Amino acid sequence: MSVKPQTFDGGIVKSTAQKMLIGAEAIARFLYGNANEKELRDVYRDVAGLTFFHHGNALAAFPDTLMSELRDHELKARQEQQRKKEAEARKIVKPRRRRTRVSRQVAAE
Question: Rounded CA gap, 99 and 26, in Å?
Fold first, then answer.
């Protein structure tokens, strides 16, 4: 059983190892655009609940998997926002009614 590497535009061949992000710095650069201390902490804490795995001693991830998970998170956030708007629109606001003052003479009778 042989696995053929995928070919992309221009006949460029990328193996699985070339597609993989290895190390928290590479993942932080992919997700946030830079790899400062804050971004590295966010990768290690996995604040978004993304799928990372260990490749040897390093943290690793596939960019395609990360992108699909981020799209799923975005879709869920939009659906939740839409649900909140619809729930707010259905909310019935009762008019406030003030008690009428009863004069003391009428109350005494």
Answer: 67
Assessment of whether the complete model's pTM goes beyond 0.90: no
Question: Cα separation of 54 and 23, whole Å?
Answer: 9
Strand order in the sheet with 53-55: 21-22, 58-61, 53-55
d(CA 103, CA 64): 76
Tens digit of each residue's pLDDT (9 = 90 or more) over 14-43: 677 678 899 999 999 999 998 899 999 999
Q: What is the DSSP letter of 57?
A: T
- Using left for φ > 0, alpha for ψ between -120 and 50, and beta otherwise, residue 46 falls in left
Q: Which structure tokens are listed for 14? A: 């990328």
